[in-house]
Amino acid sequence: MSKTLNLIKTNASNPKVWIVAGITVAGIIVVAETRRRRKKAMIIKREDFGAFMERFELIPFPQPPPPAAELPLSGLTFAIKDIFDVKGHATGFGNPDWQRTHEVADKTAVVVTALLKNGAKCVGKTVMDELAFGITGENKHYGTPTNPNMPSNVPGGSSSGSAVAVAAELVDFALGTDTIGCVRVPASFCGILGFRPSHGAVSTIGVLPNSQSLDAIGWFARDPSILHRVGNVLLQLKAVEPRRGRHLVFADDLFQLSKVPKQKTVHVISKAVEKLSGYQLPKHVNFCQFIASNVPSLKGFCQHSTNLQNGISALQALSSAMVSLQRYEFKTNHEEWLKDVKPRLGPEVSRCVFAAINNTYEKVKSLYKVRTEMRAAMQSLLKDDGVLVIPTIADPPLKLKKGSSTEFHDRACALLSVASMSGCCQVSVPLGEHDGCPISVSFVTYHGADKFLLDTVLDMYASLQEQVSMASNSAPLPDLNGNMDASELLKEKGNAAFKGKQWNKAVNYYTEAIKLNGTNATYYNNRAAAYLELGCFQQAEEDCNKAISLDKKNVKAYLRRGTARDSLLCYKEALEDFKHALVLEPQNKVANLAEKRLRKLVS
Predict the structure, then answer these.
(1) Contacts of 498 (CB under 8 A, 6+ apart)
(2) I need a labelling partner for 276 at 20 to 30 A (CA). Which of 46, 140, 232, 593 fits?
(3) Residue 315: C-alpha distances to residues 38, 284, 319 (Å)
(4) Is residue 28 in a domain?
(5) Does residue 8 lie in a domain region?
(6) Quick one: pLDDT band at residue 238, thresholds 50, 70, 90?
(7) What whole-number distance in Å separates Cα of residue 392 and Cα of residue 85?
């Protein structure tokens, strides 16, 4: 430093030296200040898990004087997604170009005011996926909120910051919006409760639209009693209602999409209701076959097969209709702004927006017809006391910065389309963990039965968590081995039943053969074929896994597992199976055609 000073003294008369010195000092100050701000930002981000866009306080309305009862949400704090208007603040919609090109709001959203009037305090706005597109929770501009339970994985979106704020215990509850899963997915990934009400049940005045026929105001909570209290306020429900009986309806075919063992989902719920009064024996349905028969307009959206009764084709068609409806209405709402501003968008969102803006929509009336028929079908299935039980989402949270594949998106949307396209209310309920990832199931009931559903969660929650604890400590039963000759006879009986298209009887015979001899790959392979005919794809995949573990060169097992995985929308895994079959049998036509089709899908 002394050498530098001496140099300046020696050349003090030279103005260029002073300019250089000034620039150097200014540069040092700027670098130091930048580092200080980054460090401060990192500290803040660590403190709030990157959940918040903006911190502020909206003070609740004053408590009425005695003898009036205390306000129902008194003492609770909440956060709101950056899609709700707050007077004096610009609503950002998850994108800086949107915020830059819009004025500050002159009114606060109706739903936020309702919460303030009932005693809750708002503490800020949370990060969201840009323009409410996306279900991963990643945001190129503001960063991705950290999933408190799985920091290396996405939190789910688009209401990512709101879910993280609740899961990290920064607030008691938070508001989000749900179009095609934007509350349900982050609730599942963050291991908390998430409620999507019946479409139109909560006011959207002062909320930016993505797709108004699908948008619903939703909320998150850790505690079912808080979820219930918030629901009573937002839905303006009566405090007391006569208790009704309930019956759960398990969508067995949809649980095949989930890789979580049924012991940790279906079994847990079944055991939980056994101990509760007012619950009828659970029913089991093939949900896809039901909607294929009761939503005739879906035929116009079936992509890969004209037979809607085939596997989950009906659900894929419903998902296709949902995505088309979202994109059509998004284009109607925001095309002009997008073309005028040309905003900077993250790659995933950019693809969605590009598809929405550049598509032509020829089946618009059919989209709304599917929605009407789907709502009527759900009412028919559930009557006035039914609760449909489905997985919230098929796959665990993705790793950060990996991007979502077509497979992940298709499997997610298949399940999420049920409530979005019917307008029914749905609640995502955490059920512990599997392989270190959160598990959740969803309860869905008919449009307008929001109080019934909230009451159901409140009623079941403690019993569910007790069963979760028990299931996590239990182990599956081992296979049994037995007499070889008897098992061969049972296999032949199974083959005869299969040829006679008596699929259930064939499964029973093969199962008995496996009990006697659990080391024969053919028994598992044959049972897998019968399961495929019944549309039980997960069971077929499991049998093929066993067959391949016993016989690595079993071509039929690879073909059948590939078929099962393809039907479960696991395209990459199915592709590998058909490739393996071609290695073992290069001229196999079935494998060759399937491999070509799946390669296009995956790419």
Answers:
(1) 506, 526, 529, 530, 533
(2) 232
(3) 47, 17, 6
(4) no
(5) no
(6) confident
(7) 29
